Amino acid sequence: MNFLFPSFLYALSAVSIPIIIHLFNFRRYKKYYFSNVRFLKEVVQESHSKSKLQQLLVLICRCLIVIFLVLAFAQPYIPSKQGIAASGSKAVSIFIDNSFSMMGLNQNGTLLDNAKSKAEQIAKSLNPADKVQLVSQDFSSMQERWLNKDEFIDQLKGLEVSPASRMLGEIMARQEDNLDHSGCPVKEAFVISDFQKSVTGMSSYKPENSVSEAFIPVSAETKNNIDVDTCWFNTPVHLPGKPEQLFVKINNYSSTTVADKPIKLFINGVEKATASFSIAAGASTTVTLSYVPDKSILQQGEIKISDYPITFDDNAFFSYKLSANIPVLCIHPDSSKLNISLHYLYGKDSLFTLADASANHLDYSTFPLYRLIILDEVTDITSGMSNELMRYLTKGGDLLIIPSASGIDEESYNNFLGALHFSPLGNVDTTNLKVDKLNYQSPIYAGVFEEKQHPNMDMPLVHRHYRILHTNNTAYENLMKLDNGDDLLDMFQYGQSHVYLLSISLSDAFSNFRKHAIFVPTLYNIGLYSSPQQMLYYTLGKEQPIEAPDLNLPEGTMFKIKSISDTFSFLPERRVVNDKTLLFMHGQINAAGNYKLFAGDSLISGYSFNYDRKESEMNFLSPSALDSLCKNTGIQNFSVLSSTGDTLPALLSEVNRGKFYWKYCILLALLFLAIEESLLRLWKE
Length: 685
Prior knowledge:
By secondary structure, the chain is α/β, with parallel strands linked by helices. It is built from twelve helices and 36 strands. The longest helix is centred in the N-terminal third of the chain and has 34 residues, at 41-74.
């Protein structure tokens, strides 16, 4: 226990005043004469005892009144656990959570307005020599200047909701770094937030106990929210005029069930589908929206629901391009040995455009124009072809390898496969075998069969096959397996590309595979899934490069990104990495929506950006949970201030100096004064 004004304690000597009064005032007696007091003796003795007790209680009350009045003027307090120095200028860093969850409402308006009001009260409690800074989710260096309290209050007015959402540990580290460069001996940091559980990570934070940390939670009256979480297609190829099915995941973070809530889909600004959904409290559901895309190659969509007051996640944007066809290149040993099966499969279907080429006369510059390249019974893979194929795979193209029936140059094949870190091919096995298993989990066979394989299902027969020699270090996915355990068809992943390795030739001497019913869906889906998997949308706040289309643009051509309304545009940074053109946004896009990519004046693609959904989940830390989190992190100088607007100034005083008790002293002095009056007026002698 300390005293703010200890010199007032000398006034405790005033306790002697009621003692002196008691000694001289209560000992005066008056004599009354009676003719006979024999019958009054017992009454006199009893009254005299009661009088002595009353006088003693009155004396105690008066002494306590004096004592507590003196203590009230001395202002007793218990120092705060932060132990901050009481002298010197002070630097105060105030973080205001301006993320989307602060759009919630309480009796004082939005949580952001409530937080700004509390920050203003903190600023007003500072001395003129103190300096203060505003930190928000934006981490703007222009915003985080050191100001006096009046300038800070003016700066608060311009603070708005931001799409950024940072972890609590990252925020505290930012404040401490700023305070370390403040030049002030006293450092305080305040964090005003709703403290969502999803953003309270402290794993990388190292406490700096020279800074006093104060956490001020703000809470919404209702914690309900529904969000459009994500969307996706199940088909990799999108064709003009072909019906589409878009799947939308919706989460209900509310405590009540939602019934028959509408959802709308817009494509290129035109409403294409409407549906409704019902979802239980705390659950998720998937809504299917069916539509036919318009004739535009670029399709840019928006999914809409209506929910209040958290509205940032009620819209989801996405973009993709329609594919006119999938170009396929088939490389043969020479021009006279064309594969009729491949020609009829890829050459007669309008989805594909097939080009044939001889291994001896290849134009490698055309490789990037094709989505799928087939090595059809090429006897050897030259070093030049190997290098160009690896470059082609690096850019995202797919490759199907069909070995030759007349034999292969095993060394050249395995040098190429080894350079890709794939399994090599071994000798030819002439055992008559049968396909035993298909990988129904692979997209190649997903939806091909109504039922999974049963024992009597007709499967291809294999008379000869090259053995694929797997090692423990090789990652692959088996698509077809023979009944002796050998692999017939494997898929290897190389970056974003797929390499399919078939262990048989398509000739009848090796198998009846090309005449079997499974042949068409297998190779058709290999070609279908060679179409690049388009990124439907990107998440704001996550700095990730965007791959631009591989185009032969004139030198000096600049990329430009524009909003749909043409009210916003900028030039992204352009880098070429591993023959890929990557675009970097550097945070220049801060509003969710659909955007278009131009090369010069030509529209070449479109991109969509959505807000991060981690602010959607309405789960928050309670003050006790926040206290435990700080203790477990090793923070020593901290306090959690749960207050209404009226009590915050008093709590701030406690943070700075400690818990004051002068008010309690006055209340006790008044209490004992009332007791004294009661003893004097109501005690019947």
